[in-house]
Design goal:
about 150 residues; mainly alpha; Arc Repressor Mutant, subunit A; 3 strands; elongated
């Protein structure tokens, strides 16, 4: 559904971020100020709303994974932009994975015994006595007032 087809009541049920999504979907990339002004106009909010809430609005956009802040200072939908990461395929991938598994299993077996001995040493050093609390006295408010 397009924003122009929605009633004011329908728009009021949406969050600012959801309205932003519809705006960016229809219009393309836009800067923060223009986006928030469009929302204020759509919801027929007072102009003072901009100064009070633009900071929170910007923060909410930065935390929402649907939006991407571009180098030119505009926002756009993340789905419109591709990542520059590439996946490199290696020949004989299965053989290399088997070799890695064999090495890691061997390391785990060697280190497993050492880890158990370290853990038991730590347990022996732990003192669970309440000797530090034996002199603790609990006073209620009336007793505190009498002492002062």
């Amino acid at each position: 559904m397009k924003l122009k087809d929605m009633s004011k009541e329908d728009l009021e049920l949406l969050s600012y971020k959801d309205i932003t999504y519809y705006i960016l979907e229809e219009k393309g990339k836009i800067n923060t100020v223009d986006l928030f002004n469009k929302i204020i106009k759509l919801l027929e909010l007072p102009a003072s709303t901009f100064d009070k809430k633009v900071g929170d609005y910007y923060a909410s956009l930065t935390n929402d994974k649907r939006f991407l802040f571009l180098e030119d200072g505009t926002w756009d939908l993340r789905i419109r932009h591709h990542s520059k990461k590439a996946i490199i395929m290696i020949d004989d991938e299965d053989d290399e994975i088997d070799e890695i598994k064999d090495d890691s299993e061997h390391e785990v077996e060697e280190n497993d015994d050492d880890f158990d001995s370290i853990a038991t040493d730590d347990e022996d050093d732990f003192d669970d006595s309440d000797n530090d609390l034996k002199d603790l006295v609990v006073l209620d408010e009336d007793e505190l007032e009498l002492e002062q």
